[in-house]
Amino acid sequence: MTPSSSWLADEPMSPQQILFSFQGRIPRRTWWLYGVLGLLGAGLLGHTLLRVAGVSEEKADDLINLLLTWPALAVSVKRWHDRDKSGWWVLVNAVPVIGMVWTLIENGMLRGTSGNNRFGEDLSERL
């Protein structure tokens, strides 16, 4: 990557595919950038703007959670796919504390399947 190129240009999928599609796989880097940092930033910005506009904190929280649910699920499903696991593994987050820790370890710290798996090609080799 040259200093003048952006990290978005190097992504193997478009931002729309990453945030709205449940198909394919994404590597850890993409999960951290889009699924953690990107969604956290969007949530904070959206919440701040809604509060400035006079929306109550509770309603702002509800609206932001509603708007970010689909992208959060899409990013997580693709990351579980990279680990060669069904997207249904996102439901592990329903288990208090343990689910969040499990997801952080599996999706944020462990490498995905090397080479192609049943969910697609290994995109980490293209970065």
TrEMBL record:
Protein name stated in the entry: DUF805 domain-containing protein
InterPro entries (alphabetical): DUF805 (IPR008523)
PANTHER family documented for this protein: BLR8105 PROTEIN, INNER MEMBRANE PROTEIN-RELATED-RELATED
Entry annotated with the keyword Transmembrane helix: yes
One Pfam family this sequence matches: DUF805
Key word Transferase present: no
Transmembrane regions listed in the UniProt entry: 31-50, 87-105
